[in-house]
């Protein structure tokens, strides 16, 4: 069975609608027919998060969200990057076969360099750790967008460098599973939904907060009576994420008929969001009082991931030292 792997960095507090449809749902869809792994990329988040309390809070929140969104019968393995004993050892060995010139090409480094001249070495070495994350588990597929394929190109380059240097076939060359492009998901202000714009709608916001955000979505200024164009409306763009085709057609007809205000559309969107995430929100709320399920699954996931990493590390050491 092919293996698929992905991760999320705990650099923020709470998953929003764009995160879900852009990253989490495609992984869930792909995982239905694969052996799947998803981890908390806490080492990766050290490029920017240097506060223990914030890190712990974000990790806890992300874990609750992972397990709330995963199906109750899911066999997806969830683990913590920092609990993998040899991941940094593997990263170090891989760094010895990684050309400096390759790292200079990294988009993550270039972007950080353009924004901030005071860059830490974790940013520079980020792609090597990412390669270790992917290669350690003999990953076949990593779901990415077109503009993220460099992650996989680097992992493949590093794997090939190691295999060629040591005349081995230890590392499998992973493939990028390129996701189809989503239409832009608008935030409450009409721009692309993003934490940096503070225009996001959180999946696990309490209902009062969720309603407040939905009702604040920017719309046009037609009167209640006037017909409206649903395809030119931020609210309808979000409705299309959650509604069936029949539901979309019914709501679109209301827009065009008139006597249907944007407030009505926003309330329909709110109902759709609450219904779509009903089970996940219920599970998330249950974790506030009882983390035993998460702790049990995470312990098993950390053990399985560690066993695999230990095996790969031991295989590497035999090639490198003996």
Quick structural gist:
This protein has helices at 17-31, 42-45, 52-69, 87-95, 100-104, 107-115, 121-135, 149-165, 207-215, 234-242, 245-257, 262-276, 278-287, 292-321; strands at residues 3-8, 35-40, 77-80, 141-144, 175-178. The protein is mostly helical and 322 residues long. Strand 1 (3-8), helix 1 and strand 2 (35-40) form a beta-alpha-beta unit.
Please give a structural write-up.
This protein is mainly alpha-helical and 322 residues long. Helices cover 55% and strands 7% of the residues. α8 links the parallel β4 and β5. A 3-stranded parallel sheet has the order 1-2-3. A two-stranded parallel sheet has the order 4-5. α4 (87-95) crosses α7 (121-135), α7 packs across α8 (149-165) and α10 runs parallel beside α12 (262-276). It contains 14 helices and 5 strands. It has 2 domains: 3-184 and 291-321, Rossmann fold, CATH 3.40.50; 207-276, Tyrosyl-Transfer RNA Synthetase (Orthogonal Bundle), CATH 1.10.240.
Largest sheet: 3 strands, parallel
Q: Can you say what the CATH homologous superfamily of the largest domain is?
A: HUPs
CATH class division of the largest domain = Alpha Beta
Instruction: State Rg.
Output: 22 Å
Terminal-residue CA separation: 32 Å
> How many helix segments?
14
Strand order in the sheet with the most strands: 1-2-3
Average pLDDT confidence is 94
Our estimate of the beta-strand percent is 5-15%
Q: What is the H/E order?
A: EHEHHEHHHHEHEHHHHHH
CATH fold-level assignment of the largest domain: Rossmann fold
Please give the domain count. 2
How much helicity do the residues have? 55-70%
What ranges have pLDDT less than 50 throughout 5 or more consecutive residues? none
The total count of strands amounts to 5
The assigned structural class equals mainly alpha
- Using the alpha-carbon principal axes, give the shape: elongated
């Amino acid at each position: 069975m092919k293996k698929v792997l992905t991760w999320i960095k705990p650099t923020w507090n709470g998953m929003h609608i764009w995160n879900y449809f852009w990253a989490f749902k495609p992984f869930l869809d792909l995982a239905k027919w694969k052996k799947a792994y998803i981890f908390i990329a806490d080492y990766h988040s050290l490029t920017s998060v240097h506060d223990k309390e914030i890190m712990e809070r974000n990790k806890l929140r992300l874990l609750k969200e992972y397990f709330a969104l995963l199906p109750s019968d899911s066999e997806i393995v969830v683990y913590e990057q920092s609990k993998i004993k040899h991941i940094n050892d593997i990263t170090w060995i891989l760094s010895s076969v990684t050309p400096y010139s390759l790292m200079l090409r990294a988009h993550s480094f270039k972007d950080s360099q353009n924004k901030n001249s005071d860059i830490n070495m974790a940013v520079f070495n980020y792609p090597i750790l990412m390669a270790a994350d992917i290669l350690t588990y003999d990953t076949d597929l990593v779901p990415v967008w077109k503009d993220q394929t460099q992650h996989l190109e680097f992992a493949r380059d590093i794997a090939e460098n190691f295999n060629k240097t040591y005349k081995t076939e230890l590392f499998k060359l992973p493939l990028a599973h390129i996701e189809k492009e989503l239409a832009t998901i608008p935030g409450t202000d009409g721009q692309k939904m993003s934490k940096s714009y503070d225009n996001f709608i959180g999946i696990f916001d309490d209902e009062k907060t969720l309603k407040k955000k939905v009702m604040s979505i920017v719309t046009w200024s037609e009167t209640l009576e006037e017909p409206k164009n649903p395809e030119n409306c931020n609210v309808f763009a979000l409705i299309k994420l959650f509604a069936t085709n029949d539901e979309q057609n019914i709501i679109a007809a209301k827009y065009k008929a008139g006597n249907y205000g944007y407030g009505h559309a926003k309330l329909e969107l709110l109902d759709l969001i609450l219904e779509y995430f009903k089970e996940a929100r219920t599970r998330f709320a249950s974790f506030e009082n009882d983390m035993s399920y998460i702790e049990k699954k995470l312990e098993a996931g950390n053990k399985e991931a560690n066993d695999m990493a230990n095996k790969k590390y031991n295989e590497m050491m035999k090639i490198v030292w003996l």
